[in-house]
Amino acid sequence: SAVISQKPSRDICQRGTSLTIQCQVDSQVTMMFWYRQQPGQSLTLIATANQGSEATYESGFVIDKFPISRPNLTFSTLTVSNMSPEDSSIYLCTSWTGGQETQYFGPGTRLLVL
Amino acid sequence: GIQVEQSPPDLILQEGANSTLRCNFSDSVNNLQWFHQNPWGQLINLFYIPSGTKQNGRLSATTVATERYSLLYISSSQTTDSGVYFCAGGSRSRLTFGEGTQLTVNP
Lengths: 114, 107
Fold this sequence. Notes:
Strand order of the largest sheet of chain A: 2-10-9-4-5-6
Helix content of chain B: under 10%
Strand content of chain B: over 45%
Oligomer: heterodimer
Largest sheet of chain B: 6 strands, mixed
Mean pLDDT of chain A: 94
Helix content of chain A: under 10%
Order of helices and strands of chain A: EEEEEEEEEE
Distance between the termini of chain A: 37 Å
Mean pLDDT of chain B: 95
Number of helices of chain A: 0
Order of helices and strands of chain B: EEEEEEEEEEE
């Protein structure tokens, strides 16, 4: 099973600034995904990070606000841009590769925007 | 997209009690997972169960794919079982999560 790590684990940021979250998988994976969990809410898929091409965003999420990179098969970043308090959430990374059944998530990044 | 409905939204138990959590899907899914989110926010995978029955210790799960629902059973609950239980379904890893069941187990 893939082991997923995220950096930072938590951060407190000022509104109007940007934060880049890193996701590292300990093995090469086909797909990587970013989810958001707002306080007291469920998880919502933000986008699929595609290696070598632009990310695929879900309805309600746009590249200007959440630019994503995936330079190789083990690493991805999510940037939360021009932050507002409404962006305060836990951001989680997960991966999938062929034949995989059990879904593992990274430990999450807790973001508080003041 | 798929709609995922979980019940009950909240559940309070005494230690040692049993419970059943339910998840209904609006459409067929070929990927169905149950997770436990601990108080620190970590999502722990409990089961991958698109159909059939699985057991792991005090936990078991059953999915009836033809009727688009899944059940999670917790027996002899312990305080460490507290947290939020999510089911999620979809294809591959594009999962849609339910709203979760907040479980509190009191000593």
